[in-house]
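Subgroup meeting minutes
Present: P.N., E.W., G.H.
Scribe: E.W.

1. P.N. recapped why we're keeping a running log of single-chain structure predictions: easier to compare across weeks, and new members can see raw inputs and outputs side by side.
2. G.H. added today's entry (308 aa).
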Amino acid sequence: MPKAYAYTRHGGPETEAFVEVERPSPGPGQVLVAVRAAGVNPVDWKLRSGYRRPGDPGTPAFPVVFGSEAAGLVEEVGEGVSGFAVGDAVFGNTVGGGYAEYALLPATVTAHVPDGLSLTDAAVLPVAAATAYDGIRGLGLPAGATLLVTGAGGGVGVAAVQIARAFGLRVVGTASEGKKDFVEQLGAVHVPSGPDLAARVRAATPDGVDGVYDLVGGDALEEAATLLTDRTRLITAGALAQEVERLGGARVVRARTAAVLDEVAQLVRRGDLNPYVTRTFPLERADEALRAVEDGHTRGKIVIEVGA
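Output recorded in log:
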């Protein structure tokens, strides 16, 4: 039977285990993919710990396979699916997890892997890069405007800085001192994170900032909001809706479409977006991959690769 890495109840790493699962069968509107690569994201361990995303139903049916994004080869297509054929290289968001030999993907959030893009790089685009893209597009800042990205050294932040630069924006990014060189390498002006953030940003941007993409929440979001005269230019993917709405801003509105995935993939092909996959692990070491992300000290993206 196919193998997958899952959590058997809510809790810490002690709840994780390899499990054997039935090979999934695609339902209407779905494609079955033989996984070749799966992205590892903070939300994976947060869901294991009991975090519930807005709109999630009640307690899931355990075991729950980890992973929200994957890339691989189409094995089977479900009823009503067009545009995909067996053997196609695709990537997208998963239904039922991606740390596995097989995964189901909704056709509406699945895209073909273009020539020149590896399956490993494609696997990390549906969550962080697509979230970054949706936020930058949603802000609608004109070329030449200044965007502040809080948490610029994290997964979404790294993509947001690069996408904003590709759209002609000037970017100021907050991150720890240890990530200063990295943030500057991305093309942003680095501002150290921490207390009194707003004062440091004002010093770095004498003409002010035109928009804020927050990926941290908490005090960073509170201080960043004070930099704007137009709070409709304040968005977050790092705080709850009520937290940002109290400040006059909003949560990032996710498109969750294949068209967005296509756009993000083309940014990579053109050299405007580097996915920054810095480490890969085989499926047999999925626990190590997840620990690397959960420990919070990684730079770039981590991918689980599944043997052909």
